[in-house]
User: Fold this.
Amino acid sequence: MISNQPGNSPGALWQQCLDRLERDIPLEELNTWIRPLQLLDRPGEEIRLIAPNDFVREQVRHSYLEAIRNFFAAHGFDREQVSVIVGGQQQRRSQPPRVTDQPRTAGLDEQYQFENFVLGKSNELAFAATRQVAHNPGMVYNPLLLYGSTGLGKTHLLHAAGHFIARANPEARVLYLHSEKFVSEMIQALRRDSIDEFKRRYRSVDTLLIDDIQFFAGKDRSQEEFFHTFNALLESRQQIILTCDRYPKEVDGIEARLRSRFGWGLTVAIEPPDFETRVAILMKKAADRGLELPEDVVFLIAKRIRSNVRDLEGALNSLIANARFSGREINVDYTQEILRDVLAVHDRLITMENIQKTVADFYQLRVNDLLSRRRTRSIARPRQMAMFLAKALTEHSLPEIGDAFGGRDHTTVLHACRTIENLCETDSRLRDERARLMRELTS
Amino acid sequence: MAGSRSDPTQRGQIPLALHPPRRPTFENFIAGPNQAAVDTLGSGLESGSWYFLTGPQGSGRSHLLAATQARLTGEGQIVQFAALVTAAGPALLDSLTGDWVLLDDVDALAGKGSAEQALFNALNRWRDERTGVIMTGAGRAGIKLPDLRSRLGQATRLTLHALDETDLAALIRQVACEHEVALGRGVVDFLVTRLPRNPGTVASAIQLLAVRALSERRTLSVPLARKVLVDQ
Assistant:
């Protein structure tokens, strides 16, 4: 029999049950599985707990329902009247999704536009090519493939092109998605026996924007389907823009015929931002938040965090969030205090010794080879690369770098840096190696 | 029941059950040098933003995350939580959605290819859905997938630092008070100099000492503390 005392209402009892479970279940399990449950507020003798999804429901049924039933049974409820069902998302999200689900511009994120892309030497070519494609979709470079390390603005350009195309042609259907989503939608279509619908969807768009195609590697069935989608779109002169985290020919596990097609249009690199661009990015992002940061603070962050735009943004956000509540003035001392860990990680990675070790490992050499007098190409080029990286990433002088490489003259270091810069203009493989080493050392 | 502990009352022990484990709240967290992080989680979260709460093991990351979960849920927001150290944690990622997703101990995924990939995919989805994400962990150094490392770098970083002696003393008094145990002369200073300086360890140690003092119906004194710590 159930008492009608307020303390024995289902709501009050559920709270008591939580208190009880709190003693018996480790906190991390309680937070993951029990706290998301909501009691369905309905008068009567039934206790219905709403789980946010099937996964939580199954876990609760399997591991905790017995204990919950025991508790309610001890308070006069019928054990079988205590159940866990899925629901719970009847509450309305307080924020609408960032990306549009309009069929005409699916997946596009409003925040990424050409107008708010910070231009610099490292990304001007990619920017110009993407704008040109957006002005003349299907007419100039098809496909357009942007490649470069993570966090350099490839996704921004992809969305910006999509918005531009959709605005210029109100009839155009533009679809943006990450390659993983393509794969998971295809798997679902195969499961549901709706692969024809899947094919129709992708082949009927006017512009297809796919991010991070390196994740197609090793997924043969997805590549097969993407290959046919790709051909169908190209034949009907619909625009394809792709991004990849490295030169696409270097991605293992992608079929040769697909790789060859990626190269049919234009392939453009996007490089890590140089110092001036990093400064401009920080100033713009601070201004977007209504802040004007002191120049020396901006210079400090831009000088020490070289890896990518995401890290710059993360550092800036951390600084602003901490300053907001501490009431402290944002100056160089406070910035060093707040970003101590982040800056230390970056500094730790880019010592001369670590550069030498990383480059030696990358080219499967010994550090001693880099320091030796040997001048065979297989050793000299990695040595030049290591010298280039030491100059680009550390504040050591040229004579200091020369000393660290077996007592070489500073003119040798200068020559090495120029050689790498010149070769990277024309040698995409070397350019990719440089980008990968930069990424390894700075992120 | 998974993870259940045996019922102390059934083993004939004394009043453990009277004092459930400390419920993590903002009020019972001694902030010390971490006030800005606590305030951000307590009242300064920006919806749709990502946060990474870092600090060494035992610095109070999980405590603050659980307190944040309670606060956001209390405000009527849809909050889902995954403790990634649990066996099912990584598998849960794909099903999490809401105003906020809270992930405890991202380090648990480090170096595990498919789990890192699952978090990367989930982060992409949450970005599109404008879901706020709060993660805890020691950092991202162990993460192998560059794309994931880069996304973690974008989060606003809130770092928890070690407490000083004054804050540790306050924590000791607070936990003892929660357990309604009297503190003997000099025991706070004794414990401050002997316990590690992270709040998680200190809170656990004081709970242990408090239970012992209560079961022996004694004041938590220096001799008792010394004896229990030596036994440990």
User: Anything to note?
Assistant: The mean pLDDT of chain A is 88. Strands of chain A lie at 38-39, 47-51, 82-86, 105-106, 144-147, 174-178, 207-211, 239-244, 266-269. The longest helix of chain A spans residues 309-326. Residues 370 and 383 of chain A are 5 Å apart (CA to CA).
